[in-house]
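Input record (Table S2, row 736):
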Amino acid sequence: LTNAQFMQWYEEINSGNRFPALESFGHVSKVPDSALAEFRNAEGGFTLFPSGQRQYYCLPGIGIWELNGLPISKGLDLCDEPFGPELAADTDSGSLTTSVFSVTHQQVDGVGQKILGAKTASGGAEKAIGPTLPASGKTLNLTIFAIPEYQGGVVPKTIAGRRAKVEGWTVGAFDSAKIVGSALGARPGIHLSVFKQSSNGANTFLGSAAETPKGNDQMRLGRANFSTTRKLNMAGTWVVYIAASGIEVGLSPNAQGWAVVIGGSLLALFAFIAILLVSRESRRAMGLATETTGQLEHQALHDSLTGLPNRVLILDRVEQALTKARRHHLPIAVLIIDLDGFKDINDAAGHMVGDQLLGAVASRLSSAVRESDTVGRIGADEFVVLADESSLEGGPELVAERILDILKEPFVLSDAPGKPSYPILASIGIAVGARPSAFELLRDADVALSQAKQEGTHGYVIFRPEMQEAVRSKVRLEFDLRGALGRREFFLVYQPVLELGTERVVGVEALLRWRHPARGVIPPDEFIPALESSGMILDVGRWVLEEATKSAAGLERMGIDLSVSVNVSGRQLDNDGLLDDVRRSLRRGGLEPSKLTLEITETTLMSDAQATAQRLATLKKLGINVSVDDFGTGYSSFAYLRQFPVDSLKLDRSFVSEILSSDDSGALVRTLVQLGKSLGLKTVAEGIETREQLMSLQMEQCEFGQGFLFAKPLEIDELVAFMKRWTSVTTATHFE
Ligand code: C2E
Ligand code: CA
Ligand code: CA
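Output record (C2E complex):
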């Protein structure tokens, strides 16, 4: 190729726009010393850097050669440090190699940019390459792709052969920070970092789309609400770390959506690699390259199953629509459509049917909206419609209703056996009106969608700002909970459990509290759901077990002999670790197993009866007790209850508070207590607040109870004081 032909091709594939991060791209020629003079003349003369006579030189030829947008000296010998070793390694490998550098360069009058030194950052430590590192000069972080070319166009089989036959290299150098930065754009609240992983596993930081982490220290970004690390393999291994930080994000980002974002951002880079790979073939192949990049670009922006625009392209379209809407004061709305029960169909009928259904939904959606509207797919069963002013004449409600209607019409899948038909119900979240960014409009629609899902009426909900507030406080809570265990913000309080006949204290129930640094002590009902949904309950639950057994053993040593009850959530029971946790806690605390009771709610017991019964059986082999909490609220039957190896029932507080209000409630308590007795179980009443309640419970022969009448949940030293006082009072009454 001549330089002019190269430039023409470069323009043809629209490289400037397609690869804004590209700094240098072209052919490096290996020039033997004997041919140097001729090469120099052909290039119009240059000064060799570094000067001096060598066997051969590696000089930039056809192409664009710049650093920080400034032209590189034509006489720069790239086989000198820092690139020499890379090009040599590339020659030996015979294929595409990538490397990551930070270079320092400086203007030399009349000749161009000269590279003064370079360094690599690996695993946080920086290593200088080449002679001395100057303090002055401009720096640039480069990601370099190089592919060797050999005489005759074939790759010699041996390393010796490759070294002897190498003619030059096609090289592309990108500004690392720009690859990553431009990839994401300035999306609020999202952080993206890319690392190149070398064969020894060390990560070199390439760039990030937000604040720069130090070296390899990406975990310092642990403040994020959501984060994921992914590996991509293409011409090397790339580690991509994405985090959505800050409360502003306000929605649980779905991992799949982000995966698409990464895919889209790095695809530009990979498209370039594809060009490089074919560049050493003929010019004909270059046409192919253009096609390939076109295809890659399409793939990067569209969903492969339905062919609809994906999240990346949708964000782009919404951004454009927003600009237009703001300029001309036009209405705009985004609708996010989530299919209800799709997962069930997918699980029951198989992925093939599921995929076919999604395809059918996609085409129905496309036909239901106007030409000027955009339909996209942004999640497994999540679609998006961007409606412009013409469809919004009747309001977004009308658009939503039309969509819900056309989906209800059963889908007949002709390919599936038996030609089954499926009506599809959906929930729709709508955000109306301009926002500062596309991201915010989609986020608000997403918030409205979760509201619609929650209502469960298969309808639509239009976003209102209060919804964001609710989501925000939920996110904030989860955010604050993270690390609360490590910061020792949790503590336990203990509520005495008494034998109702004698009013002796026989045990305590351990109840969790969270001392929030700003909000003070928070009761468990407010934060346990968040611990459960985030999975943090496993660690916190383990801590509760250890702390409670330790306290009980400590009391025992002080001569206060009490059993202790610990609440266990469904998530813990589902987990294999619970058995080990219980065993370890008992051993460490030095508590007898018979002194520990696990409380499991009736609803948890019923949710997966068989598996739960089995787990309880193994737990019980340790010698501990199991109690059914909130008993009476879950409508479990006698027969049902019998299959569980439990020791006691805890009557829910609601029965106790109503026990005097009507005959019915008294009868109900009697039935529940009798039920327990017939199964040989102890009964414990919760929430006893008055003497009258106590007397009724005693009459119904309920054996044990707890409540504010006796004591509130107490901190451990308060409990010790309470026990001293209480024992002297009860002993006194007994002797009266
Ligand atoms: P629960 O297991 O039903 O616990 C009894 C609740 O009733 C406690 O609320 C207790 O303070 C309250 N209570 C006790 N006596 C009275 C009374 O006379 N009147 C009234 N009105 N209330 C009384 P708390 O401490 O707010 O705990 C609420 C729930 O949080 C617990 O209900 C339990 O389900 C859950 N929880 C507490 N600690 C843990 C824990 O460590 N792990 C798990 N998974 N859940 C816990
Ligand atoms: Ca309980
Ligand atoms: Ca309870």
